């Protein structure tokens, strides 16, 4: 059994931010930190005071985390980035909103004395003597202190205050992991109410010392314990009165905390087996649990439920069967062909999740080169005459500006080239499309053709496939490549318009060039020859795509299973320092790394392009190391140079690490390994919320059939699937109730309560 915590984060937009540049604007981006560890950096939105990001993240983290903070920064090319403000949400505040925090939050000023991090190792004792008692405080070491100096470190010392007396440790130069091993004693009177204050500071020769954090200990409680030793989390200095803040703007956020207690796999087996049996029986099954779940799930929860069910069945090898069942259910209640898969049904949401989980690498292979070319060219493209701005495109020659007609013709040529390249890449991609995706589209194609036979519906099976492949997968990725990890940054206004027009053209091709699509935007007419040609190419591609037999599907899956799929790949810069002393030179070498569950390898040339920010690499490394039985509890973040470690200055090369191994904060990615127990727990939680409605439905069906009530005693096995589901929910609730309840596991820290 394990405690799991996750944060669903959506950074929507900012408004009324202050201008930080001389142009009267800013270049804002966001940094997200969990307990001072940076985990997310959004794209920079250039030259605006009201940026829109719309970026979503799923973060898995330790249940003992304290707070998540959102920093809004202004990017500067020549100097250090400016801090605009921050929003901090504590764990307690998030836990108080089970449905999550959603709305606008005012940015607060960032006070350096509140920006602390790290922990300090203390030993505290009450020493009783014949004459008087002494309070002995041993300052042993600290770790992960905030770097305050330009060299990326600090010069820390500790100041200990009690009962009007102050004592200080020595200064450790250039270290965020100092070791002091110094002891201080204070006279202690029995019943004394004053607290012991231990402060960490960064020593500066010229300017004032920088505050690094403090620990305040209630001495009265130390009397009972007599002696305590542990790691204390450094706290900010909140004794100063906050200055009147100016208007720093606001940030719109959606943040939801989920705490789950995941039971052993055996506890979920009855639920998993019951749902799998329903999928295997299909529409011929007696219970129809899947339709009931869809009927009772609200629209706002449908995407999460669809994703959880899809991942569960994907892990059981039943994703294709699950989606096939949903296709049949959707077709069974659809009478008008033109409304097929147009709603936000469980089938539509599950298929969207399926393509992102199983087809993202395929999407990168097809779309990646086209998207990169659009970004590199940065051409002005516009087809709508009412939006053409000739001044934006400059001159076509040395003497005259381009006319509106020339701009429209040049734009049409550019879009035809991009659309043609995309369709050609798609036509060549049949063999690279994952076998399970091809087999799922085959089932969709067959089911639609069976439901709507006849010449008048000849194109409908093709449109059903393109409604997911083009309209719900390719087109959104073209319009927002950053959100599909195709680019590291959002597009500027000019590139965004090109991508939008290209996505519209892809949608027209996906709609098989229907008259209704053409009538909406007549100014897209210059692309019609390419669109008509693209329709023929797309139909030929789909015909080949769905032409996959069971044996070929199994062979492709078997060949794929023999390869360790990359968890992360892309370029990293390796820093190499030459020489010693102030005149040493530095160089950076760019290598392309590939991380799988088995190895970390690199080459001089890239095999593919991907998003490769440092926090995503760290997240990927943590995921593949999660089951490593030899994972160290601590490590040295520096190097052993000369005769000592650069981080903590210890001279023993075999010395234990001075920092703890952080392995608990990871970002969810599309290629994450499946966590079957977690998905089963999330489905159980959802069904638990529907239990009253399911029980009412069962009573209604039982009354009509003259059946008995739901058994709840041990050993009883009802034949009715709905009754079985209710029994499984009852058993899981009992298992949770009997599991060891308690607070989340704490990180190594002090056993004493802190004075606040």
From TrEMBL:
Sorted UniProt keywords: GTPase activation, Metal-binding, Repeat, Zinc, Zinc-finger
Task: Enumerate the spans annotated as Ras-GAP domain.
Answer: 301-511
Molecular-function GO terms, alphabetical: GTPase activator activity; zinc ion binding
Disordered, as annotated region:
702-723, 736-756
Domain of life per record? Eukaryota
Span of domain C2:
1-105, 116-232
Q: Name one GO biological process term.
A: intracellular signal transduction
One short Pfam family name for this protein?
BTK
> What is the official name of this protein in its record?
RAS p21 protein activator 4B
List the SUPFAM superfamilies.
C2 domain (Calcium/lipid-binding domain, CaLB) (SSF49562), GTPase activation domain, GAP (SSF48350)
Point out the coiled-coil segments of this chain.
none
Q: Does the keyword Signal apply?
A: no
């Amino acid at each position: 059994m394990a405690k799991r915590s996750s944060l669903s984060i959506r950074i929507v937009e900012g408004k009324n931010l202050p201008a930080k540049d001389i142009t009267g604007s800013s270049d804002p981006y966001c940094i997200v930190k969990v307990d001072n560890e940076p985990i997310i950096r959004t794209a920079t939105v250039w030259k605006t005071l009201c940026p829109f990001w719309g970026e979503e993240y799923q973060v898995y983290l330790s249940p003992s985390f304290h707070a998540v903070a959102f920093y809004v920064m202004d990017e500067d090319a020549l100097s250090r980035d400016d801090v605009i403000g921050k929003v901090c949400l504590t764990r307690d505040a998030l836990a108080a909103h089970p449905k999550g925090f959603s709305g606008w939050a005012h940015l607060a000023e960032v006070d350096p004395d509140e920006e602390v991090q790290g922990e300090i190792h203390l030993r505290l004792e009450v020493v009783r003597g014949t004459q008087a008692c002494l309070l002995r405080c041993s300052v042993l070491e600290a770790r992960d202190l905030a770097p305050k100096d330009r060299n990326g470190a600090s010069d820390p010392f500790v100041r200990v205050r009690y009962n009007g007396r102050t004592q200080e440790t020595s200064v450790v130069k250039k270290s965020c992991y100092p070791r002091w091993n110094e002891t201080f004693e204070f006279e202690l009177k029995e019943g004394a109410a004053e607290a012991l204050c231990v402060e960490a500071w960064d020593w500066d020769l010229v300017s004032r010392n920088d505050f690094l954090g403090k620990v305040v200990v209630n001495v009265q409680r130390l009397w009972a314990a007599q002696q305590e030793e542990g790691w204390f989390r450094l706290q900010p200095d909140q004794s100063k009165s906050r200055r009147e803040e100016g208007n720093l703007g606001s940030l719109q956020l959606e943040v939801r905390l989920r705490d789950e207690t995941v039971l052993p796999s055996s506890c979920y087996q009855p639920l998993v087996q019951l749902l799998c049996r329903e999928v295997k029986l299909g529409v011929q099954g007696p219970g129809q649990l899947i339709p009931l779940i869809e009927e009772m799930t609200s629209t706002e929860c449908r995407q999460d439920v669809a994703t959880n069910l899809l991942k569960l069945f994907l892990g059981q090898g039943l994703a294709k069967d699950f989606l096939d069942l949903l296709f049949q259910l959707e077709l069974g209640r659809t009478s008008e062909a033109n409304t097929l898969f147009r709603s936000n049904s469980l089938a539509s949401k599950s298929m969207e999740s399926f393509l992102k989980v199983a087809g993202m690498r395929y999407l990168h292979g097809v779309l990646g080169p086209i998207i990169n070319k659009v970004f590199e060219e940065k051409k002005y493209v516009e087809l709508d005459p009412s939006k053409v701005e000739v001044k934006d495109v400059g001159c076509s020659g040395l003497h005259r500006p381009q006319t509106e007609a020339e701009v429209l013709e040049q734009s049409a040529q550019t879009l035809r080239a991009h659309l043609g390249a995309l369709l050609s890449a798609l036509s060549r991609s049949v063999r690279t499309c994952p076998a399970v995706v091809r087999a799922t589209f085959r089932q969709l194609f067959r089911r639609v053709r069976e439901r709507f036979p006849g010449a008048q519906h000849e194109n409908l099976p093709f449109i059903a496939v393109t409604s997911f492949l083009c309209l719900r997968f390719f087109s959104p990725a073209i319009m927002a490549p950053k959100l599909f990890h195709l680019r590291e940054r959002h597009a500027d206004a000019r590139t965004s318009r090109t991508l939008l027009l290209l996505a519209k053209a892809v949608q027209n091709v996906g709609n098989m060039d229907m008259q209704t699509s053409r009538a909406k935007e007549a100014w897209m007419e210059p692309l019609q020859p390419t669109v008509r040609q693209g329709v023929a190419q797309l139909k030929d591609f789909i015909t080949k795509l769905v032409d996959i037999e069971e044996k070929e599907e199994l062979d492709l899956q078997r060949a794929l299973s023999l390869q360790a799929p990359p968890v992360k790949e892309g370029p990293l810069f390796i820093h190499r320092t030459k020489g010693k002393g102030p005149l040493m030179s530095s160089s950076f070498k760019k290598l392309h790394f590939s991380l799988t569950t088995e190895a970390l390898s690199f080459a001089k040339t890239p095999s593919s392009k991907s998003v490769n920010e440092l926090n995503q690499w760290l997240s990927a490394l943590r995921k593949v190391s999660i089951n490593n039985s030899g994972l160290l509890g601590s490590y040295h973040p520096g190097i052993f140079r000369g005769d000592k470690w650069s981080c903590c200055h210890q001279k023993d090369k075999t010395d234990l690490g001075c920092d703890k191994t952080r392995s608990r904060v990871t970002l969810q990615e599309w290629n994450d390994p499946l966590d079957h127990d977690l998905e089963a727990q999330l489905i159980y939680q959802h069904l638990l919320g529907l239990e009253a409605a399911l029980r009412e439905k069962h009573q209604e069906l039982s009354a009509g059939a003259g059946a008995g009530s739901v058994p709840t005693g041990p050993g009883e096995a009802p034949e009715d699937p709905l009754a079985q589901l209710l029994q499984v929910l009852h058993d899981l609730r009992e298992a949770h109730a009997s599991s060891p309840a308690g607070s989340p596991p704490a990180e190594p820290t002090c056993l004493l309560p802190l004075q606040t």
